[in-house]
Amino acid sequence: MISIVKDIVNNIRAKEQAQLSRMEHGTSEPQQRNKKENFRTRRAYFYWVTREQGSFDWFKNIMNEVAERDTNRVIELHNYCTSVYEEGDARSALIHMLQSLNHAKNGVDIVSGTRVMSHFAKPNWRNVYKRIAMDHPNTKVGVFYCGAPALTKELRHLALDFTHKTSTRFSFHKENF
């Protein structure tokens, strides 16, 4: 998944550079479109869900690179640490409050050590699908899951459910380990 995020960032950058180059040379359309200019991703949502905060270290540099280079905010990153207290627990609320204050003051998340704010507990996947369906009506949305098989069934079911109930078409893909 990290390589997909890096590829999206690189494709966005290449497309922007090609457009700037055309503007500098006074041309509106390229003579031949290359692979980078045909890049069709308009928005990407990346959810990193882990039990241990140390796992965020695996791609800390990538999260910071995305935060710096993705000036058009094409990629939306979400970190979830599930070993912390359940959402709604008073201790979790205190941690979240301290974290929010630190992030607002310093621009760095205290859990991941990046510019990407971490959440606690598991994501509410139904709400995630709902928000994406509402934000992207009449579009095709690829859902790519990499992780333990336990979550595969729920994510596939939600993709089918929201495909049937909304105008957004979700296409589910998975890689289990």
UniProtKB/TrEMBL annotation:
Single GO molecular function: NAD(P)H oxidase H2O2-forming activity
Family annotation (InterPro entries): Fe_red_NAD-bd_6 (IPR013121), FNR_nucleotide-bd (IPR039261), RBOH/FRE (IPR050369)
Residue stretches making up the Ferric reductase NAD binding domain: 1-159
Pfam families assigned to the protein according to its UniProt record, in alphabetical order: NAD_binding_6
Gene Ontology annotations for the cellular component aspect, listed alphabetically: plasma membrane
Keywords carried by this UniProt record: Oxidoreductase
PANTHER family xrefs: NADPH OXIDASE, RESPIRATORY BURST OXIDASE HOMOLOG PROTEIN C
Protein name: Respiratory burst oxidase homolog protein C-like
Source organism: Raphanus sativus (Radish)
